[in-house]
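Homework help board

Subject: predicted structure for assignment chain

Our instructor gave us this sequence and asked us to write out the predicted structure in token form, then describe one feature. I got the tokens but I'm not sure how to describe them. Can anyone check?
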Amino acid sequence: MPKIVGAETLAPDINKIVVEAPQIASKASAGQFVVLRVDEQGERIPLTIFDWDSGEGTIDLVFLKVGTSTQKLGRLKAGDTLADILGPLGKPFPVKKYGKIACVGGGLGIPAIHPIARAMRQAGNEVVSVVGARTRQLMILSDEMSCASDSLLMCSDDGSCGVKGFVTNVLTDVLDDLDLVVAVGPVKMMEAVAELTRNKADTIVSLNPVMVDGTGMCGACRVKVGGQVKFACVDGPDFNAHQVDFKELWNKNNQYVESERHSMKCWGRGND
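My token output:
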């Protein structure tokens, strides 16, 4: 059973764990993810690989404690074990020399954009990273993003960290001389970036639909890109932002909200 060798809180309800997974660590690439289960009865949780160490045989995962399964995951400490973990899954990000690029991360998109920014810089690109959060308290991994970028621009909804406003406000100021924009974060944020960059810069987004098996068999992660049905777990997760049907993605991601609330209530009663 995969062992957790490190666990820490990065911000309120945002945790990082380090998991022993030598086979995954030896093959991981920027943009890929894993699917794990906390226990035998738990649902499958897809998480982007934030970092990995092939020498130590470990991978780093960052997650938000938002539902029953992630609340359970957040209770685990170093020395605890997971039921299982599968990966690396998804296609690696298409890393190559583009020129000057912007890596945009919003909220929990920051851990996902980090390995992409790092790989793109190592490939010889000039990387401008734009990261945003609601408040300073929720701004995570700024040191890591700074090390992965040539320059780092930060913003927050309330102005408590960096520029007051959204990532699109900051991106507007650097958009004119970009060769590529990469965005990861909430659906509405990625949609806003796609609209801002349309006819101005090629843009790639990493999609986060509901996933179950992570291998393309269940079909839960269907998304529509360029009018065609794609499966984010095997065809992605990275797609041309200007071809994504964000309305369909938004509706899909919200179809289990009530079920999740019911699950949290039942789990909460059992843990009072």
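Reply (TA_rk): Your tokens look well-formed. For the description, you could write something like this. The chain has two domains: 4-89, 100-253. That's the kind of observation they're looking for.
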